[in-house]
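Hi R.,

Here's the chain you asked about this morning:
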Amino acid sequence: MAPSQATIAAMNPRSDIHDRLAASLREARKTRGLSLDAVAKLSGVSRSMVSQIERGESSPTVATLWNLTQALQVDFAGLLEGRPTPGIEVTRAAAAPVIARSPGTRIRILSPAEAVGEHEVYDLAFDAGAAMISDPHSAGCREHLTVIEGEVTVTSGDDEEHLGPGDTARYAADRPHRISATAKARAILIVQGS
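And here is the predicted structure, written out as tokens:
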């Protein structure tokens, strides 16, 4: 004789909150059209852990949950309340994800999580002499770099240009490319089709 639903529920100590959390995170990912791999890339949480959390097989730590909610742009405090998304989505400066990719560089992610791989926007900050060196992205990928302050040198394949405040460079990013700062600098980078 198969166990009843009540017996199964009694054997499974998971709470309703656990189930709502799993469903809310899964719904947020699907609403934004993101794959498990994309969420893993954005959050720094492994793909297998994201999958386990969405299936309700693992309870995330507060730190893991925070990383996931930031990547999915879900309100951490209201995650289980089912609040509607506001008409104007705001990411406060202190809440924007930051990547320290190489010594002397800081990358703030400005684009929404659902834009990964299509249209990504970054705020770049360089210490004097720092560089961001990138391997080729997917075929046809292009980057648009606008210098806000300081000076940078952009290299794309064999091509190289020096840029100052207000200058914009558009270049192929499907070949090795590099942005280096001669002095402290800041720029906005838009990546199309990464």
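One quick note: Confidence is low (pLDDT under 50) at residues 1-14.

Cheers,
M.
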